Amino acid sequence: MVETGLPDGWEVRHSNSKNLPYYFNPETKVSSWEPPSGTNPEKLKVYMAEYHSSGGIRPGPSAANEGKIRCAHLLVKHEGSRRPSSWREAKVTRTKDEAMEIILAHESKIRSGTESLGDLAVTESDCSSARKKGDLGFFGKGDMQKEFEDAAFALKPGEVSHVVETASGLHLIERLQ
């Protein structure tokens, strides 16, 4: 049996409406986008990277996406984040300074070419978009938090931002299209 890192009785299922994995306990009928308490985050990280990350398919723009851009991001939350929990950990307790150290180390790997943002996002991002290599899809002006949007729209396709701070936490953003 494959080790998921989830507590007994829990499993990973796939949402057809959101096209994302979620956590489900068939016995209690409880479902959650966030891992249940008692999850082993390291084992879950390995399992999700192996079985629930996308192949990075990047379709081209269409008329429906006129005026929109497509980005991926890597999010590191801290205790002061708007919602200090994630699929990786039920309660984020790191300080903002600790989160900054973590994201700067990720940025260094990306800029040196040793890791891509998408590959790092799969295991290191605190956003559920990690399952899609951080891909947020297409969005337009007014769809995202202002700081995020300003940084994303300032990028050219293929460029990666420096650290961007929002109420959600600290981000690195890569403009895909």
Automatic annotation (TrEMBL):
The keyword Isomerase applies. It comes from Patellaria atrata CBS 101060. Its EC number is 5.2.1.8. CDD domains: WW (cd00201). The keyword Membrane does not apply. Residues 4-38 form the WW domain. Gene3D superfamilies: 2.20.70.10, 3.10.50.40. This is Peptidyl-prolyl cis-trans isomerase.
